[in-house]
Design a protein that fits this description.
single chain; alpha/beta; D-Maltodextrin-Binding Protein, domain 2; 6-stranded mixed sheet; 5-stranded mixed sheet; 45% helix; globular; Solute-binding protein family 3/N-terminal domain-containing protein; signal
């Protein structure tokens, strides 16, 4: 009887071990340093991450700053993030979804109104730097078409690292320690009160295309590759199409949202309900 009981216990333990799901950490930016961070990732979890991945993974969410997020995605940790910009350098150590999870309106140049003339025409960052303008950037962030320019030592560019680097940049700008920053409108609104925002103006950047894609991104691990495969499948679903439409319609001006959804349809074959 003892032998039979031991065998039953052993089988039970083996079954439990065999069915235990691996943990996948979803890294989320502590970017706005507010409840907006939690709201954003909770929406992504409910609409995309859990439906696509929870059957095969135990999902764990961890908030961190941008530099640590990129470092962890480049490591052997089983980790992913919902929305990261793809660059050749990052593609060497990370794996990206086939279809973007989010399409951004490009970052713009921001400065005090006394420094930058307002207008609808794009302005060249190259020209501003050549005219001795000083820029502040987040050192761990890719500015894509501007990266090589910002790395050029002949120009006056200050790179900021550490906790809430964007907040540091905004303070440097408002205190006239730097002339310009390159930023998303949403990031400024999250860090700067309205009365200070009113002191700033912005211009589109001549070196940038109209929009930029963010992709579901994972570490180059067994779990990471599997998560990307599952996300790629889920991206083709009607549920994901509805979420993409919801995200872009709520976060952008109507004309921008329409243009973005048209790109999803024309470039990635995603169809949307109630779209023109």
């Amino acid at each position: 009887m003892r032998l039979i009981a031991f065998i039953v216990i052993l089988i039970t333990l083996n079954t439990a071990t065999a069915t235990e799901k691996p943990t996948l950490t979803i890294l989320s930016h502590a970017y706005f340093a507010s409840e907006a961070d939690k709201l954003s990732i909770n929406l992504h979890l409910a609409a995309v991450i859990n439906p696509a991945l929870a059957d095969e993974f135990d999902i764990d969410v961890d908030f961190t700053n941008h530099a640590r997020l990129m470092k962890r995605l480049s490591s052997n940790e089983a980790s992913c993030t919902f929305n990261a910009i793809k660059t050749p350098e990052r593609a060497e150590s990370m794996v990206f979804s086939n279809i973007p999870t989010y399409m951004h309106v490009q970052r713009q140049v921001y400065a005090l109104k006394s420094t930058l003339e307002s207008g609808s025409a794009p302005i060249s960052v190259t020209k501003l730097l050549k005219n001795k303008g000083s820029f502040g950037i987040i050192g761990s962030t890719s500015y894509r078409e501007l990266d090589e320019l910002f790395a050029n030592k002949q120009y006056n560019v200050a790179a900021i690292y550490g906790e809430n680097a964007f907040l540091q940049l905004s303070r440097l700008l408002l205190n006239k320690r730097i002339d310009y920053i390159v930023a998303y409108k949403q990031a400024l609104e999250a860090h700067i009160p309205a009365h200070e925002l009113n002191q700033l103006t912005s211009r589109r950047i001549a070196e940038y295309p109209e929009f930029i894609n963010g992709f579901f991104t994972c570490s180059k691990t067994t779990a990471g590759y599997r998560a990307i495969a599952l996300i790629n499948d889920y991206m083709k679903s009607a549920e994901m199409a509805a979420y993409i439409q919801q995200l872009h319609s709520k976060s952008n001006l109507p004309d921008d949202a329409k243009a973005m959804l048209n790109i999803y349809t024309q470039s990635y074959g995603i169809r949307f309900e109630n779209s023109d």
